Amino acid sequence: MSVAQQPSSSAIPTSAPESAAPEEDIVLEVQDLHVYFYTQIGVVRALNGVSFKIPRGKVLGIVGESGCGKSQTSLATMQLIPRPGKVESGKILFREFNNQEPIDLLTLERNSDEMRNIRGDNISMIFQEPMTSLNPCYTVGDQIKEAIILHQGVDKEEAHTRAVDILRKVGMPNPERIAISYPHQLSGGMRQRAMIAMALSCTPTLLIADEPTTALDVTTEAQILELMRDLQREIGMSIMFITHNLGVVAQMCDEVAVMYLGRIVEWASVDDIFYNPKHPYTILLLRSIPRLGSEEHIRLESIKGSVPDPYTRVPGCPFHPRCPSFMPGLCDVEEPPETTVDGNARHTVRCHLYT
Amino acid sequence: MVNFLIRRLFYMLVTLFFVSIIGFALIELPPGSYLDSELQRLRQLGGNLSQSQIRSLEIRYGVNDPTYLKYWKWVSGAVRGDFGESFEYKKPVGELIWGRLLFSVTLAFSSLIFAWLVSIPLGVYAATHRYTIPDYLITAMQFIGVAVPQFLLALVLMVFATTVLKQEVGGLVSQRFVNAPMSWEKFWDFVSHLWIPIIVISAGSTAWLTRVMRANLLDVLNMQYIQTARAKGLKEGVVIWKHAVRNAIHPLVMAIGGVLPALISGEVIASIVLNLPTTGPLLVQALIKQDMYLAITMVMFLSIMLIVGNLIADLLLAWVDPRVRLE
Ligand SMILES: Nc1ncnc2c1ncn2[C@@H]1O[C@H](COP(=O)(O)OP(=O)(O)O)[C@@H](O)[C@H]1O
Ligand SMILES: [Mg+2]
């Protein structure tokens, strides 16, 4: 079913001349990823064929309502899907360096040395809850040092120096002191900075940030986002930036993948997503963000209906029960294939309106 | 830290003061005194005692003194290390209880350490292998551990030790060592006598702590920081033992505080069945006979151990969990 790469080559000969870079440098390529949870009441199909690519040095935003499978996508990349979840099929190809043969992470044993060497060193992760994502029993410095010692094989003193350096880099006011503080002595924003420091301590190729600012207040959120953007440019890493907030996407990302019920329904550059959205779901998502300057009494639109319960399989397009452009006999029968939009190979959508 | 210790010490003294008053009052509360049972015994032996004889005995034992006077007599001696004399044994109380206290404390802490050594690994294993056959087996053992009465367990182990291991059981040491001077052999004999009471006494708490460990660890394993630790690339063993267990261990540390009172009540039965010179049986006897100075002194020492146990638990907890330190 994977049509992910077809359009860029022969399928649409008339396509975009400027994006004709012959060999794109892709850091992470997820192909047709399926993740199922085998629960006692039934099988939850959390991911149903997710495919996307993250180019080197770029930020890909993954957006969608909660429960659509964003976190599972990130956890699958780290091979940390919790029980009773299982990766059913798919490929997760990772290239640490350009022109390298990609490694399919899913072929590595979950707790093997190879996989553990990638975790925290080449790919690292920040989580949503800064309040609980640091271990309360160890100092911030110790927790950062742990990763440095593990992956860089340096002694404790050198690790300490590096930990303090990285804490300074993430904008901690008094890094020496923060290093010997415990998580509960820091505010939420500081903890998230500490998490970022930890994630960046081994200069990863890819950073996965799962809603890193959702739990923070708006001012802190803005600071953290700016910090991440700056560090991303400086280190040149790629980011998989997961959020349910389109406003944040505009600030952070180069490209956006919109996710619905375990599938990517639209993928495009940030500009295309905001100015030329195609999928009805994307359009509705955009309408549901409040805008400055719009008349105050215009009510925000919310998307009708809710996400169907996770145990049932929706036939055809997963969005059809809520879709305003629902075409009976087509949308509820056949799953739409991935198609390019207006001949632009960097904008794809899965919707029968465009096939 | 120093401040904290001084404050705690002060509170401890205040607590002990109230314990001594309340304890004393309670021991005085039942009607009659040690003299009544003593008189009864004397009458049975040699007919009637004249009133004047009774009077002189009363004065000697001071049974008709007002309670506060008795209390004062005892307290003023106690702070100087003189706890009065046991009516029944006609010996200074201190002499009577030191050995027993020492043995009780040894037994209590050996049992606690045994309970930890068994319950922590079992609990961790059960939590990390949830819903597997070993997990079910551990659960079944817990129920047995909680449900089997101590005296029964003691009898079963004694039979097992004598018939299968051909060991002498009961008492502190084997018969041939009772009057022997201390030696490695005697010490070894003592240790080999100790395992039965340790198992008997700690069976219940081991089972309970295993349960607690399993439940807590399951909670902790769902915490975000465990995911963080895994995402760093740490080995699963490090994730479990360094990051998870340390956060799940609070109740086991707090168990130090509770172990002594539990022992005082639990150990009596085991000690009687196994014929062990611990404080439990002696205290029960002293209370029945209204041997009041012996009784109140033991109550005081048990309270001191309880309070010290709690202090140790708090200090350990502060060491394990930095969040406790700053409050
Ligand atoms: N432990 C679990 N058991 C069963 N289903 C789960 C479990 N964890 C996640 N899921 C399913 O996976 C889907 C995707 O979850 P998730 O990736 O966490 O969503 P989000 O986009 O909010 O991050 C959810 O709809 C949920 O039903
Ligand atoms: Mg999520």
Describe the structure.
The complex is a heterodimer of chains A (355) and B (327). Chain A has one domain: Rossmann fold, CATH 3.40.50.300. Helix content of chain A is 28%, strand content 23%. Chain A contains ten helices and twelve strands. Mean pLDDT of chain A is 87; it is low at 1-20. The relative contact order of chain B is 0.13. Chain B has helices spanning 2-28, 34-46, 51-61, 67-78, 93-128, 133-147, 150-163, 184-221, 224-231, 236-248, 250-274, 279-289, 292-320, 322-325. With 327 residues, chain B is an all-alpha fold. The mean pLDDT of chain B is 85. Chain A binds chain B through residues 78, 80, 111, 116-121, 124-125, 127, 129, 132-137, 139, 143, 146-147, 150-151, 182, 184-185, 195, 198, and chain B through 223-225, 227-236, 243, 246-247, 320-323, 326. The complex binds adenosine-5'-diphosphate and magnesium ion.
Q: What's the gist of this structure?
A:
The complex is a heterodimer of chains A (355) and B (327). Chain A is α/β, with parallel strands linked by helices. Helix content of chain A is 28%, strand content 23%.
Key words describing this protein structure:
heterodimer, A: 355 residues, alpha/beta, Rossmann fold, four-stranded antiparallel β-sheet, 28% helix, B: 327 residues, MetI-like fold, 14 helices, binds adenosine-5'-diphosphate, binds magnesium ion
Arithmetic mean pLDDT of chain B? 85
Chain pair with largest interface:
A-B, 30 and 21 residues
Overall geometric form of chain B: globular
CATH class of chain A: Alpha Beta
String of helices and strands of chain A = EEEHEEHEHHHHEHEHEEHHEE
Output the CATH homologous superfamily of the largest domain in chain B.
Answer: MetI-like
Spans of chain B of at least 5 consecutive residues whose pLDDT stays below 50 are none
Tell me the overall shape of chain A: globular
**Proportion of beta-strand residues of chain A:** 15-25%
What are the segments of chain A in which pLDDT stays under 50 over at least 5 consecutive residues? Answer: 1-20
Q: Beta-sheet strand percentage of chain B?
A: under 5%
Q: Please compute the radius of gyration of chain A using only Cα atoms.
A: 21 Å
Please tell me the CATH architecture of chain A by its name: 3-Layer(aba) Sandwich
Distance between the termini of chain B: 11 Å
Give the class-level CATH name of the largest domain in chain B.
Mainly Alpha
Secondary structure tally, helices of chain B: 14
